[in-house]
Write a structure and sequence with these properties.
Low-confidence stretches: none
Order of helices and strands: HHHHEHHEEHEEHEHEE
Mean pLDDT: 84
Helix content: 40-55%
Strand content: 25-35%
Number of domains: 2
CATH architecture of the largest domain: 2-Layer Sandwich
Length: 275
């Protein structure tokens, strides 16, 4: 500030300079009334509030979409929609479904002979591939435990006998995709399929899971454990359902004693299609 009073700016020039910062000072420069100044301030506040509300609403919608996407990945879409609508999810009985189990044969030894981060990376990459295939084939991944994966079709949406076709396509694509998955190295999928009735329902609140129960689940697991690496093991029930879809090729394995069950003729689903 100059020491000479004559060189100092007058009050009007100061108001004009400050008016660029505060619009109310500009109103004073124009000799507006106090009411006009209050209206200008309220309009300014209103515009700012509207901007903040719009911004927060957009952010809320984006977060809601992210939450819905996560829920749709964890649960079947129809179950997720019922949950969002606040509906009660009741257990259901399904007359016929198809369940597939697959695991990475040799992973236990692989995990022992490799660093933990390598083993985890292999499982993560495998699960990502399976997730992509489930979306592509429109089947539901029920759960994943270590190197074992459970996939189902025909639940919670009833689709006639098409569940066996979808699971068969999924299994063939998984087996044919395996040679391209370089991260698997010496590992391969051992897969088993069984069709039959089961019960299903939503378990838990904090981390809800859509679970399947019944002897069909146990039999599908047995088909996997009694199978061979790199092959798709079919139960006679699944083979019978698959006969109506002529594009698939099946060969008889022979009579097999199923642990805890009985002796039955099982089959191999070949990784090829009839033209």
């Amino acid at each position: 500030m100059p020491k000479d009073p004559l060189q100092r700016p007058n009050i009007k020039s100061l108001i004009r300079a400050l008016a660029t910062i505060n619009p109310l000072l500009a109103a004073q420069e124009k000799n507006t009334t106090l009411f006009d100044q209050i209206c200008a301030r309220m309009e300014s506040y209103s515009n700012e509030l509207e901007y903040q509300v719009t911004k927060r609403t957009v952010e809320l919608m984006e977060e809601t979409e992210k939450c819905n996407a996560i829920i749709n990945q964890i649960l079947p879409r129809s179950i997720a929609q019922q949950l969002r609508a606040g509906e009660r999810i009741l257990p259901e009985f399904f007359e016929c479904t198809t369940i597939l189990f697959t695991d990475l044969h040799g992973f236990a030894d692989f995990a022992k002979n490799n660093p933990p981060e390598t083993a985890i990376a292999v499982i993560s990459a495998t699960e990502i591939c399976i997730d992509k295939l489930t979306t592509e084939c429109d089947v539901y991944k029920v759960e994943a435990i270590s190197d074992s994966f459970m996939v189902a079709s025909g639940v919670p949406e009833r689709i006639g006998c098409n569940h066996i076709e979808r699971i068969a396509v999924f299994a063939i694509k998984l087996v044919t995709l395996q040679p391209q998955l370089t991260f698997l190295q010496s590992l391969c999928f051992k897969t088993g399929i069984h069709s039959g009735p089961c019960a299903a329902g939503l378990m838990g609140l904090k981390r809800p899971r859509y679970c399947l129960f019944g002897d069909t689940v146990n039999m599908a697991s047995r088909m996997c454990s009694h199978g061979l690496p790199g092959r798709i093991h079919l139960s006679p029930d699944s083979q019978l359902l698959l006969e109506q879809f002529t594009q698939f090729m099946v060969e008889e394995r022979g009579v097999l004693a199923i642990k805890g069950k009985y002796e039955t003729t099982t089959y191999w689903l070949l990784p090829a299609y009839r033209m």
